[in-house]
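Entry for the shared binder. Reason: the reviewer on the internal report wants the predicted structure included alongside the sequence.
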Amino acid sequence: MSSNLHLTILGCYAAAPGSYKNPTSQVLEIRNNLFLIDCGEGTQVALRRNKIKFARIKHIFISHLHGDHFFGLMGVITTFSLLKRTAPLTIYGPKGIKELILLQLKLTKGFTSYPLHFREITSKESEVILENEEITVTTIPLKHRIYTNGFYFEEKLGERKLDITACLKLDIDRAYYNKIKQGGDITLDNGTVVKNEQLTFDPPQPKSYAYCSDTAYYEEIVSQIQGATALYHEATFLESHAHLCKPTGHSTAAQAAQIAAMAGVKNLILGHYSVRYGDLQEFIKEAAPYFENVHLGDDGKNFTF
């Protein structure tokens, strides 16, 4: 059965942190997996503030090596050790992330109480970087000043739902229920073959989450994120500062909304705002003409889809 997709925004502002404006980090819960996505400065404090259980985080995804997306990582790694963690932790990120962390551990004579693994990403093409029985995580190559990937989290199709009434009516033994849920047909004692479609309902449609930060306007991602349940797309600038997009490798709220519309996603969440702006409602106003179902990300905000 498909679970809810739950997103907690720990921070969604660009560049340096402010008193009440944290740089990028968020937690995604999907099919009982809890993923930390980017890890800007102050992430571990935000995790505590939002009552996220550290022990449930087994995988951390770093989009690129700009400080506002990974400066909090060393603190998180160290705190996990202070909490006597023993479960393995895997960090996914661009080539160089392993060297950055291991050098800090070496020079501070630090260590981890748990196995620390790295999956360094170098491909400019989309690739699967994590897969288990429930979900698949795929990179989304983005267009930024340095090598950057977004991440696409997608549920796998679940088991079919048993039609108990139909099974009871045909007096099918309970021992066959698991086989039926997995898509199998059933042969009755009289030799009649009952097709699976007569005994089950379609499973829920798998949910998906596309995380795209940081990037300039980049239509090449549209085919990969087509129909996503939710898209988080950076919206660093309003149109009044659109001229800054090209030199910085960022997008406007309107551009993010255009990508969402082309991809036919169900929900758009904006974030990575420049701290120069005081009223975030302006981002909604500029995105709304292009895409209707748009939401403002903000520190501490939760979304369930």
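Summary line for the report: The longest strand covers residues 33-39.
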